[in-house]
Write a structure and sequence with these properties.
By secondary structure, the chain is an all-alpha fold. The protein has one domain. It has five helices and no strands. Helix 2 runs antiparallel to helix 3 and helix 3 packs antiparallel against helix 4. The radius of gyration is 21 Å and the shape is elongated. The mean pLDDT is about 90.
Amino acid sequence: MDEDDFYLKVAHALSGCQLVEQQLKLYITEALELAKKCIGKKMPFKISGEDYADSSLERLIEIFKKLTDNESLVANLREFKNERNFLSHKGITHCLDYEGELFDPTALEFKNRLAAIQDEAQWLYLAIHEEANKFRGHLWFDDLTESDSKTERSESL
């Protein structure tokens, strides 16, 4: 296997992992925006998606877990994280021999794992998006200001 081809495949597969992280950040941001919209003026709500902009994948999964009831998706994300961590942090050195050259048998196995995680990343990206679609209509279209004005009127009586 050509080294340039190998490193290109690594970069391509791991870019899919980055998209999963971005989708988690978007989910968290929108979920928190909906919470803020529901709370309205009843109390301060200063938590936002920006608070998690630099969070690790593990941290994003833990926050996501608190904002969803989809336990199987959370479990899949945790398995994905473990594989991603191996591939991105240890995998390349695992494929090199003692002289720093690409060791073809291990690199071929690694290539299969890269293809698998790329497919998994695409599936997770879509699954997180679909999970967010469960509440996006409320975020974008529900008018919660009417309930706030009713609360304000009853408090003034």
